[in-house]
Amino acid sequence: AAQIAALKHSPGGDKIVLAYMSIGEAEDYRFYWQDGWAPGDPGWLDAENPDWPGNYKVRFWDPGWQALVLDYTDRLLDAGFDGAYLDVVDAYEYYAGQGRATAAEEMAGLVAAIRAYAHARDPDFTIFPQNAPELAEAVPTYVDSVDGIGQEDIYYGYDDDDVTTPPEVTAELERYLDVFKNAGKLVLTVDYATTPAHVDDAYARSLARGYVPFVTVRDLDRLTVNPGHEPD
User: What element of type H or E holds 65?
Assistant: First the structure.
């Protein structure tokens, strides 16, 4: 908590500090992971993500997983974070593809449950999902459960780092993100590029639509300060 408080009131001005929390995959390096866990045991634990070793799909609608997520939320509140940055929200697509017709509603419901649980302790705790902006179209009430949204790869990085995202993908993402923006939510964009022209382009296009841009490396292992785009 002391570290988070120091970060919130660090040089350069007060900051909003969000904590990353994956709600669509379990990670074997988190506090909750127990020795002996394997897909199917516990029952909500599903297959390992082949692209991210140590990350496992979860049946996110399962009460056991949801209880774990709320325990995680308690830890964020105890540490004094201003909000949660929820990742792997798009896990609902994986299960919808396997025939679970209620997957979208269940993911939106989990996000709403996290918000309600956190607000019982801190009414100002904010919720920022990452990616899957189309969920707002599938479940219109979803927008009311969040304070903003983060979107990766909107201009660069969709197919590969430092590669222009296909225009049709960008247009579709912008259409969905504008639903959040028009509802008064903060839209954060994260693009993965290092070529100066691509960096400049991503910032210009994001700002032109009223979003808040950041361009960095996918490993997220350093805080990138792009020339000409320094923080205020």
Answer: helix 63-79
pLDDT in tens, 13-33: 999 999 999 999 999 999 999
- The verdict on whether omega for the bond into residue 42 sits within 30 degrees of 0, i.e. cis, is yes
Instruction: Give the integer Cα–Cα distance in Å for 151 and 179.
Output: 13
Give pTM, 2 decimals: 0.95
User: What is the distance between the terminal CA atoms of the chain, rounded to a whole angstrom?
Assistant: 26
Amino acid 184 reads G
Give the strand pairing for 83-87 and 126-129: parallel
Residue 6: is it exposed, middle or buried by C-beta count within 10 angstroms (0-12/13-18/19+)? exposed
Question: What order of strands is seen across the sheet that includes strand 148-152?
Answer: 148-152, 186-192, 212-216
Mean pLDDT of 78-95: 98
CA distance 209 to 187: 10
Between CA 195 and CA 118 the distance in angstroms is: 40
| Of the candidates 213, 201, 232, 216, the residue with the CA atom closest to the CA atom of residue 224 | 216
Whose tokens are 């995959």? That residue is 25
Angle between helix 103-119 and 63-79 (nearest 10): 30
Which contacts of 58-64 are long-range, i.e. CB under 8 A and separated by 24 or more positions?
58/24, 58/25, 58/26, 58/91, 59/95, 60/23, 60/24, 60/91, 60/92, 60/106, 60/107, 60/110, 61/102, 61/103, 61/106, 61/109, 61/110
CA–CA separation, 206 vs 212, rounded Å?
Answer: 7
